[in-house]
Design a protein that fits this description.
46% of the residues are buried. The protein is an alpha/beta fold. The protein folds into 2 domains: 4-107 and 302-525, Aminopeptidase; 109-300, Glucose Oxidase, domain 1. It has a 17-stranded mixed sheet that branches. The chain has a two-stranded antiparallel sheet with strand order 13-14. It has helices at 11-17, 39-44, 49-59, 72-87, 194-197, 200-208, 221-233, 257-264, 268-281, 343-365, 387-394, 436-450, 473-478, 506-525; strands at 4-6, 26-29, 100-117, 120-121, 128-129, 138-147, 169-173, 213-218, 236-239, 251-256, 287-313, 318-328, 334-335, 338-339, 372-379, 403-409, 425-429, 453-455, 483-487. β17, α12 and β18 (453-455) form a beta-alpha-beta unit. The model is unreliable at 1-23 and 243-248 (pLDDT under 50). Helices cover 30% and strands 24% of the residues.
Length: 534
Amino acid sequence: MKSFAILYFTILSLTCFGQKDFFHAVVIPDTSISLVSDEASQYAKLIQSENLKEIIYYLASDSCEGRELGTKGNDRAGDYIGGLFEKYAIPKLKNQNSYFQQVGFTWVNWDKLSFKINGVNYKQLWDYLTIPNQNEDLELKTDEVLFMGYGIDDAKYSDYKDIDVKGKVILIYKGEPKNKAGNFYITGTTIPSTWSSDFNLKIDAAARHGAKLILVIEDKFKEFVDANRQSVISPVINFKNSTSSSAYKTNSLYLSSTTASILMSESISKVLKARDKINKSGKAHNLLIKSNLEISQKRNIKSIDGRNILAYFEGTDKKDELIIVSAHYDHIGKRGTEVYNGADDNASGSSAVIEIAHTLQQLKESGKRPRRSILCMLVTGEEKGLLGSMYYVNNPVFPLKNTIADINVDMIGRTDDKYKSDTNYIYVIGSDRISGDLHQINLSVNQKYSQLKLDHTFNSEADPNRFYYRSDHYNFAEKGIPAIFFFSGVHEDYHRVTDDPEKIMFGKAEKIARHIFLLTWELANREQKINHTP
């Protein structure tokens, strides 16, 4: 009997599934086959939309202030989750008497900024951009700026040859020089070198030669600001005792084309001629620009504490092997008085993991335990760069060598433009990247119990959204641990103040949470652990 139907065929799916026979971007189960009713399906019914709703409404309430890492609202959300685990009588981690894995961070943002050209003040985000974790405190006054072409120091082309930049402010363009034929001087081809793609090379070159500050002419300033706005408006978070700067680093500041023109003033035509000479000859041309520049920037640096929240369920005969079910409970906080409640992102995924933990505890109390151990983990700092999960994989509570899979849940409470009113679907990302078994088991569990449309479109390496790299499962996958990511897609309220709990489709969230429980239960109880062959 045919188990699956093909919704459509796409070339993207070939990238997604490599050389296997999985040619479906979307796999639709055969609904002529009845759903299986067994013990596992009955266990899954313990997950109820009413419980998910209660959790989501609390986490996405104004009292949690958007749950941004380092805020009281984030602490309040963490205390609430820990309190639920206590209420459910889930045992605390052995030898710790706690559900929490403490994670230390450093919070960096600008305390004071001032940028003046010839006595006139210019505005951060409008006229220039300076990013706090790419800079240090700086007080600077100068009446000259040295134009240094592209700021490259390479054996095949160097802007630093025979010139002293120690203690100077330098002005550079992004990219690298190329001739009229369109060939770059460093590569000798139409393909640019890493000097174009990795700006840190230019920062390190300037620092090695002793430059005090790099001013960068950013031709696409608006797009650049949009891409880096979060790093300026919200504090940048680093792990405690880590640093974003190196011994060779120097400060950098990006100028809009208009601001750069004001800085260059009467020298602008000379700068443009110098740039043209560089591109024509492939040789450096430097130029001293007379301009009064005053810069004052001071960072605010403080230590904050974050917490991953762990509910551990010990298995029976295969207890040394571990399945992790993860979701991030943090969000992006407040902007002024507006609260970004993050009901879908990711109170929805958090509620699923919390209810899976609740279900596992109920089963344990009735004498039903999984063969393998299961860790339900709510991680912090995802919105700051997958930090909580990154911390865990580098400081695991249980050995990573015994961790056989991570099942990650992020945004399962809404629909996107593709599916609109159709709630019977879920995007599946990463299932086949490391383990073909994981992919096949998910298909099998879905056909047997859930019969959701499983959409693998975003698993493609050609996907411009790069979702595979944007949630917590990726840190496990990077360590070679098979990982699967469940996601409903983005919508008009993504990262907006309108991502509120009344818009959550609780029946949809319930069905997906039950599917994730059933997949977890299958992985924890099957005889053979999954393989590591894509």
